[in-house]
Amino acid sequence: MRVxxxxxxxxxxxxxxxxLEEHEVALVVTQPDKRVGRGKRLGAPPVKDVARAAGVPVxxxxxxxxxxxxxxxxETGAELGVVVAYGKILPKAVLEAFPRGCINVxxxxxxxxxxxxxxxxxxxxxxxxxxxxxxxxDEGMDTxxxxxxxxxxxxxxxxxxxxxxxxxxxxxxxxxxxxxxxAAGTSVATPQDHEAASHARMLxxxxxAVDWSRSASEVDCHIRAMDPWPGAFSAIxxxxxxxxxxxxxxxxSVAEVGAEAGVHxxxxxxxxxxxxxxxxxxxxxxxxxxxxxxxSGGRRISARAFASGHALPTGAMLRAAEDLVGGK
Length: 328
Known about the structure:
alpha/beta; Rossmann fold; Methionyl-tRNA Fmet Formyltransferase, Chain A, domain 2; 2 domains; 6-stranded antiparallel sheet; about 30% helix; elongated; Met-tRNA-FMT_N
């Protein structure tokens, strides 16, 4: 099938590669190049690099409503638009530029977690599974009828980063199945239950602030959901620390570490100690063990190595989330 592909980040690369192997990609539409990193070097979206390597034309409109975009889409003669993490809501004119409309690869089990950050918010919400939905796009935010979806279990070690890596190829696989069904005339579009919908808004840097008053399970999910961006963070004094590689500490371990440190009734955010397993911190209920730490401007290292160069005294308090939001 002749298609136009619209997408931008790494998550969109496996679906694009699958289309390049099995179908005819007439055009790739992606976001404009942006300045990235400390050197503010101009960087291209990952999808652009893949398209150029395959010899596929690329356009990078600043607006999805640009008249020149609509003209370029119509000139392709494509039957279908395929959208994967493009980053812009498409207007009706774009959706209707193709005889078969546009389908979207969305990284959640719709109608749950509609929006820009479904992977992160599903993980932060303590979900035990997530997945991919292929839907027919309409003018709403992930509100169109669903053509197919497939679940994926969330493990205790998953981060947002590892879920991205696992869901992207699943999305590519499901996309090809739906396209085969569209070609055969067997694909069925099922309306979403809008009353059961939940939303996954775009992440902000301040979303990384850890609320130690929550349970250990909730704190653990939050830390893993913010990895790699924006990164969960807290602070001891004026030293801000990013937190990675979290797990819920077993109750027996919490009691043992606390007893060794002389902390028998810890407050949320209180440091229970640092050992080879990581930094042990009390939560509103239970405790977490955090294996990876990163100081501002530094690199991610083990908690033990971090403690060798930074003060993490047992009994000290990590600051509350409300004290950290906004760069305080």
